[in-house]
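Researcher: Good morning. I'm working through a list of sequences from a screen, and I'd like to move beyond sequence-only analysis. For each chain I'm collecting a predicted structure so we can compare shapes side by side. This is the next one on the list. No need for commentary yet; just the structure.
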Amino acid sequence: MKLCGAVTAAFSLPAGFKRDIAYATEQAIKKPPVIWLEGQDCAGCSESLLSSLNPSAEELILETLSIRYHETIMAGTGMVAEHAREETIKEGGYIVVVEGSIPKADDRFCEIGGKSFREIVMETAENAALVIGVGSCASYGAGIVGTTPSEGGGVAEFVKNKPVVLLPTCPVKPSRLVSTIMYYLSTGKVPELDRYKRPVAFYSELLHDNCPRRGQFEKGNFLTDWNDPRQREYCLLLKGCKGPRTYTDCAQVWWNDGANFCINAGAPCAGCTQPEFYAAFSPLYDKQEIFNIGPARSINLDSVGAALTGAAAAGALAHGLGRVIFEKKDSQDQDEDMREAL
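Model: Good morning. Structure tokens for this chain:
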């Protein structure tokens, strides 16, 4: 019931809807089965799912989801495993979860059981009710594999005739996946998506706006020396944090049932929910030299650091910089959405 309540809150549903979600979850025999495919990946999303605390891995596999095929966790192998996938495809109405990118340069970069991963994805998606890309690799062809000669692509680049939901982060956050599936089971439709096919419930706000270090940003306290204990809680903007460019709820909904998330653990946001990840956001720990805030206008972070000498001046400058950056970003997003709509 705790999980059902969380799903209700995440998608802004009426409180009474929690009972409907609970009922849908209880009807295990009526649930669409899940086929989980792995392509060019590190299995990190599978490991993230199996590290889930609420619900636990046992509850996910045995109670919450009806997983018919998953190369990492299934007992069957070889022809037995492939037979399970083929029989599920014949039944139809299942959910496909895709982990890892799909090669675009040459299908031979990723083959399973004598078939290319591209062929497997297209074949499996044919009778599916819903396709979910988990992690940055499956969402955008991003991540480390996106920089290899295989030229990995995201699942939405290939699957065009089915509803596709993307859940980027590296790896996927289990609560997002379970919530998305439970929402679909309860309503029979996909949640509201943004232009990148991400659920608005999870990807509508900038990480920076809810960052626990936002106060340090406002004061102009930026970490410059990892070994200085006085800077332990300072803003990580100068150490490569992509929070001002990253839309995610990581700061509000922490990983592993509220245990932690990147910035709270002392690491800058890598921007793994964005299409720019990984190539355009690397090196991950190098500061972004310039923030573009409009035509012929930019802010050099070295200049910002040099200017932040007085506490009062630092707070005013940082606050003003933040408003300019984010208001401009929001304006650009709205303009782009309007152009696409037209």
